[in-house]
Amino acid sequence: MELLAYCEAKANELARFVKGEKSMLIRGATGRKLPYGKVKIGEPVYLIENDGKGLIIAKGEVAEVINSDRLSEEESIELILDQMQKLRLTDDQFKRWSGKRYLCLIELKNVTSIPPFTYERAVNMDDWITVESIDEIKKEISD
């Protein structure tokens, strides 16, 4: 599988991945939803900012995945704090994710800039998209 993950523009996440200042993505919810349980080590992850431009501009590889069991608020906070060196969350991001019952932490390696491209956005409005091949949804940028 190949993965497409949105990075928070306000927190400058994507640039921080490329610069090596950050190495882990976080997703969480009160239930188990994508990407929980679906991400495998070695899978490619394409990165896009949630800035409305729709440009995929970086790619990395899954190095580690942590899918939590059901967590209490305190356990959720503890897990995030344990991984904060890799997550490098802003205060707003910490508030958003702490306390979630289920967390999925995805460490990336070899994150590099790639020639930008966009994709065919379907009805799916998730911030995490899984496809067999990125070529299925890839759209070249036309001038």
Plain-language structure description:
This protein has 143 residues and is α+β, with helices and mostly antiparallel strands. The protein has helices at 13-18, 73-82, 84-87, 91-97; strands spanning 2-7, 24-29, 44-49, 56-67, 102-119, 128-131, 138-139. Helices cover 19% and strands 38% of the residues. Strands 1, 2, 3, 4, 5, 6 and 7 form a seven-stranded mixed beta sheet that branches. It starts with a strand and ends with a strand.
Number of strands: 7
Termini Cα gap: 30 Å
**Share in helix:** 10-25%
Give the CATH topology: Archaeosine Trna-guanine Transglycosylase, Chain: A, domain 4
Question: What is the CATH class name?
Answer: Mainly Beta
Sketch the topology as an H/E string, one letter per element. Answer: EHEEEHHHEEE
- Number of helices in the DSSP assignment: 4
List keywords for this structure.
single chain, alpha+beta, Archaeosine Trna-guanine Transglycosylase, Chain: A, domain 4, 38% strand
Give the gist of this structure.
This protein has a single domain (2-119), classed as Hypothetical protein (Archaeosine Trna-guanine Transglycosylase, Chain: A, domain 4). Helices cover 19% and strands 38% of the residues.
